[in-house]
Amino acid sequence: MTHPLIPVSGISMDETAAYARRLAERIAKEAGIPVYCYEYAAFRSERKKLAVCREGEYEGLKPRFGVPEQMPDFGGEKWTDRVALTGCTAVGARDFLIAINFNLNTTSTRRANAIAFDVRERGRVMREGGSPVGRIMKDDLGRERFIPGALKSTAAIGWFIKEYGIAQVSMNITNVAVTPVHVAFEEVVAKAAARGVRVTGTEIVGLIPKSVLLDAGRYFLRKQQRSLGIPEQEIIRMAVLSMGLDDLKPFDVDNKVIEYMLDKKEEERLVDRSVTGFILETASESPAPGGGSIAAVMGALGAALGTMVANLSAHKPGWDDRWEEFSDAAVRGQELVRELLYLVDEDTRSFNKVMEAFGLPKNTAEEKQLRTEAIQEATFYATQVPFRVMKASMAVFDLAGQMAQTGNPNSVSDAGVGALAARAAVLGAWLNVRINAASIKDRNRVEDLLKEAAGMAELSRQKEDAILEIVNAKI
Q1: C-alpha span between 376 and 357 (Å, rounded)
Q2: Residue by residue, what is the 3-state secondary structure of 49-115?
Q3: How confident is the model at residue 290 (pLDDT cuts 50, 70, 90)?
Q4: pTM for this prediction
Q5: Where are the domains positioned within the chain?
Q6: What own/partner pairs with CB < 8 Å and gap ≥ 24 does 261-265 have?
Q7: Domain covering 2-93, topology
Q8: Which domain of life does this protein belong to (predicted)?
Q9: Residues 300, 344 contacting (CB under 8 angstroms)
Q10: pLDDT at site 267
């Protein structure tokens, strides 16, 4: 049995490898089971491959103990009766393994296998004369020789699926950084076509990281010379449509994409509410969402309008040679939209942390001191959040200005409204920075922040005026 740790979100491979090694050490110490570390957690380069750690399997394990070059990384000093019962295990850090099946318009397992051998890294056995029934060629050591396939970091086989009544090429991609899913798809399509077979769609087995589908969606959008600056849900839909992920059954994004499954467990977010629901919550007796969240909403709307103009410009008839220019602008806009939407909820969360700090006990001198420190820290963070809203909203002016100047002239008013929304966001967030900073006792902590924020507030007026001058001249 192996225990791979896989980074999904918010953690690097190096950090994951460090955790894998710590886990391996604990298993050896606390459970008494020797452990090999493999792939990114390997201490030796040759142990990056799990097969090296497994070499000889259980029967060949005992002679490896006590030999530095061969013994397990943890707990391999001495062979004991307990080790004889448990054997060894392996802990590693690796990339996410993608299991994908390619649906074929044939029932022939032989044809499916031929395609699989064309693409898989190992390839096919070399035979005399290139004939499928020719004598197997071997090297000087008597080992079979192989003709490598087209795709690195892949293993594949052909089979017939009775449930669907079709043959498939079943593939494991062990490193999507080397062979992305869309690259594998295109190669299987090409090799199948060369053998008179068509790929009708694909099937993801298990879960898949969001980034894999986003990369695929962007690839197919580029092929169509379409803007990449669209919401991630639409990019993923492009991947689903292009690779036929719903060929055999509906592709349920919420239950197939890892990040979306994790999101289900998070608390309800303000940004997930309807427009009416958000406004009514703002109008209620609750102090949150307040002005900080509303400022972030206005900034997000400004960024969204600039992004919309960029996308409309990218698809404007006669501007085909400029699609990439506007696509790049739309991608920047989507990044700003995502950041500002995050800050909508983060502002409310920061306010709630201040309230929690005020609710701490204050019965003793020590409790009072801890409460005061907690209030100051929470308030300082509540000052930083609207400051971040200001910085992100200032970036909206660059997008809105570019679209007012060079974007689709039919949408110039939308660019102008985007600039108005951005200024409202900057000034609204500035008010929140000031009111929260006023409660910070250590003025040195906020002096530079207030100075920079004041500069942004003044500059926002100038940027808005410049953009509106362009807009008014074109209307």
Answers
A1: 9
A2: CHHHHHCCCHHHCHHHCCCCCCCCCECCCCCCHHHHHHCCEEEEECCCCEEEEEEECCCCHHHHHHH
A3: very high
A4: 0.82
A5: 2-93, 98-206, 270-474
A6: 261/207, 262/8, 262/9
A7: Formiminotransferase-cyclodeaminase; Chain B, domain 1 (3.30.990)
A8: Bacteria
A9: yes
A10: 66
